[in-house]
Design a protein that fits this description.
The complex is a heterodimer. Chain A has helices at residues 50-58, 84-90, 102-105, 112-122, 129-142, 148-151, 161-172, 191-208, 219-223, 243-248, 253-260, and strands at 8-19, 22-34, 39-43, 66-74, 77-78, 95-98, 179-183, 211-216, 228-233, 236-242, 309-310, 316-317. By secondary structure, chain A is α/β, with parallel strands linked by helices. Chain A folds into two domains: 3-94 and 182-194 and 207-324, 3-Layer(aba) Sandwich (Rossmann fold); 105-176, no CATH class. In chain A, the strands form two sheets. In chain A, strands 6-7-8-3-9-10-12-11 form an eight-stranded mixed β-sheet. A four-stranded antiparallel β-sheet of chain A has the order 2-1-4-5. In chain A, helix 5 packs across helix 7 (161-172). Chain A is globular, with a radius of gyration of 20 Å. Chain B is mostly helical. Chain B has a domain at 95-289: MetI-like fold (Orthogonal Bundle), CATH 1.10.3720. The longest helix of chain B has 38 residues, at 193-230. Chain B is globular, with a radius of gyration of 24 Å. Classes of the chains: A alpha/beta, B mainly alpha. Chain A binds chain B through residues 58, 60, 62, 84, 88-93, 96-97, 99, 101, 104-110, 118-119, 122-123, 155, 157, 168, 171-172, 174-175, and chain B through 231-234, 236-245, 247, 251-252, 255-256, 329-331.
């Protein structure tokens, strides 16, 4: 697979943050790709590097953090090394972000309308403020906000949680991006609203051929809605493949652990198996598999460096005993 | 702000004012020195005459009684006769007030124009050499004693370079009809450009002396609140939308970062209004501050009491206004 066929291809991405205890590689050689219109689930617990990967894609790693190595190809063009202005022009327009908590992501001092209109104007998608406002009303309508014309002049705190999340999605879509990066878009929401918001993202994806990177720690969120998933652990991709296959037959002990820790609907009495132990300290990683201290299948060989390797068609795993995972 | 909270704040305000009145009353009346003796110092007055004057001024009554008379009058907006000027205290204060307010407002303008850009730059360039230099400069500015800094400015700009005048609000030879008492406005109304420039020249040094320490403090506030806001989700989200950096900084970040700065500014305005006695004295500024200093030396009880009460009222009102403003800015 070459970068040109993909909408987004991340290759060997290494993003580091200097800390008091040394350099922390939040992403350590991350590889992943998303095709146009595809929904990719990016799954991992907090600290796995999933958010940092996509902040790197957006070019929003704050100093002193920096991208140390790798390529980020968007429509075949490497974004690393582009000018600040060129990166900015892509943000919002080529790829947009939806965050976890709309209350903190929306500016409390600006109306929803202002926050949509400015995005439209920044990317030159309307000549006048009035035209941009018309587009903003359309957008709010598309994401299912009732009486959008009147809600435009409301402040974020005047919206309910679910409506605010919809408004944030409307803002993200204001410049018609090709890739929507949804970072835990439903984690802060009530269960009842969660499905509505996920349905909305699904619908928008179908309507406009949007590709979606759904970043989540919750396998259930991606299970039904993403064609493919990437599982991340401690700054590395550990498993990748079509969602249904990965869930049915995980090829990495960490993925299996994640699945076992999900409550089961079919068998509510089945005990929930939490993965024992903790994510390693990323400033003190040793060579070899990063999961081995928590892994039931760990053997001596796991202290050697492990590469992500093909395990069957379209599937990859970073485990030397991938075939033995059941 | 809810109504009950508003009422609560107003009651607090009254309590504070009562406390201030009591403290000022006790402090000035218990300070050694007799106003009658000071007033009659150069005149050969008999004991009877002195006693008559004492009775005339109401100083022969017991302390407690004098306090309640003062309080009762103050509630009605009546502050008595200035011992020294033999005119109503309020008239004397009103005459001097515009000079002080004008100086304060210009000093505030100096403070704000200096503080906001510096605070923003320091926050954006956080932990760089520039930020550290600005931090050091502002620490220096905050600890600058006004009388020393003022004298330094006078020595440099007035004595050595002869660039700016010093002493008073306007030079001799300008005759501007007094309309508002604010010379900037009066000269403008009269269309006297030369006089306006002269007034501005007189304002420059005292305004800088008064404004810079405030600027230093304000810049620190702006820096820390701006730094906090820059780390927020909504700034990240604004950047993710591809907005120009200027808009992210000056609208998304600054608008929120200024909220704490507004509160500090309001409090500082009270500080400036009440705290410019030294600067007014150094620059021979005919304002309220200098009047109060003169009145303390003359044991001019009614004037000092009225002036300090006025300071207190201004201070608490500005604090109150800051609270209200906070609610408006943070919908």
């Amino acid at each position: 697979m070459t970068g040109a066929e993909q909408l987004l291809a991340v290759r060997g991405l290494r993003t580091v943050f200097p800390t008091r205890r040394g350099l922390l590689a939040a992403c350590n050689g991350v590889d992943l790709q998303i095709a146009a219109g595809e929904a990719l689930g990016v799954v991992g617990e907090s600290g796995s590097g999933k958010s940092v990967t996509f902040l790197s894609v957006l070019g929003l790693i704050r100093p002193p953090g920096r991208i140390e190595a790798g390529e980020i190809l968007f429509e075949g063009r490497n974004l690393i090394g582009l000018s600040t202005a060129a990166r900015r022009a892509l943000r919002g327009r080529a790829m947009a972000l939806v965050m976890q908590d709309s209350l903190s992501a929306l500016n409390p001092a600006l109306t929803i309308g202002t926050q949509i209109v400015e995005t439209i104007l920044a990317h030159g998608l309307a000549r006048t403020r009035a035209a941009a406002r018309d587009r903003a009303v359309d957008l709010l309508h598309r994401v299912g906000i009732p009486a959008p014309g009147r809600r435009l002049d409301d402040y974020p705190h005047q919206f309910s949680g679910g409506m605010r999340q919809r408004a944030m999605i409307a803002i993200a879509l204001a410049a018609e991006p090709k890739l929507l990066i949804a970072d835990e878009p439903t984690t802060a929401l009530d269960v009842t609203i969660r499905a509505q918001v996920l349905d909305l993202i699904d619908r928008l994806r179908r309507e406009s051929g949007l590709a979606v990177a759904m970043i989540t720690h919750d396998l259930a969120v991606v299970a039904e809605r993403c064609e493919r998933i990437v599982v991340m652990y401690a700054g590395e991709v550990v498993e990748e493949g079509p969602t249904a296959e990965v869930i049915a037959r995980p090829r990495h002990p960490y993925t299996r652990g994640l699945l076992a820790s999900l409550p089961s609907l079919e068998d509510p009495d089945r005990p929930i198996d939490a993965i024992p132990g903790q994510v390693p300290d990323l400033t003190r990683v040793e060579t070899g598999c990063r999961f081995r201290n928590r892994c039931p299948l760990a053997v001596d060989l796991c202290t050697r460096p492990v590469e992500l390797r093909a395990v069957g068609a379209n599937r990859r795993s970073r485990c030397i005993r991938a075939e033995e995972v059941t | 702000m809810t109504v009950s909270r508003l009422v609560e704040r107003l009651l607090q305000l009254l309590l504070v004012l009562f406390g201030v009145s009591l403290i000022v009353f006790l402090m000035i009346t218990l300070t050694p020195g007799d106003p009658v003796e000071i007033m009659l110092a150069d005149q050969r007055a008999t004991a009877e005459q002195a006693e008559a004057l004492r009775r005339d001024l109401g100083l022969d009554r017991p302390l407690a009684e004098r306090f309640f008379i003062f309080l009762g009058n103050a509630v009605q907006g009546e502050f008595g006769i200035s011992f020294f000027h033999r005119r109503p205290v309020w008239d004397v204060i009103a005459e001097r007030l515009p000079a002080t307010i004008e100086l304060t407002l210009v000093a505030l303008l100096v403070a704000i124009t200096v503080a906001i850009p510096l605070g923003v730059i320091a926050a954006v360039k956080r932990d760089t050499l520039l930020d550290r230099a600005l931090s050091a400069a502002s620490l220096f500015g905050v600890s600058l004693p006004g009388f020393w800094f003022g004298i330094l400015l006078i020595l440099l700009f007035a004595v050595e370079l002869r660039l700016l005048p010093v002493g008073g609000r306007i030079g001799f030879g300008f005759d501007v009809p007094r309309v508002t008492g604010f010379l900037l406005i009066d000269t403008l109304v009269a269309g006297e450009v030369a006089a306006l420039r002269n007034v501005l020249a007189h304002l420059t040094l005292p305004a800088i002396t008064l404004g810079l320490p405030t600027a230093a403090l304000l810049a620190r506030v702006v820096r820390s609140s701006m730094a906090e806001v820059l780390a927020s989700d909504y700034v990240l989200f604004a950047e993710a939308k591809g907005l120009p950096r200027r808009r992210v900084l000056l609208l998304h970040a600054l608008k929120n970062a200024l909220i704490p700065a507004v509160t500090v500014t309001a409090i500082e305005t009270g500080q400036l209004l009440g705290g410019n006695m030294i600067v007014e004295t150094v620059f021979g500024w005919p304002g309220l501050g200098r009047l109060v200093v003169e009145s303390i030396f003359a044991r001019n009880y009614p004037l000092v009491q009225a002036a300090v009460l006025l300071y207190a009222v201004t201070y608490v009102t500005l604090n109150f206004a800051a609270d209200l403003l906070y609610t408006v800015l943070n919908p």
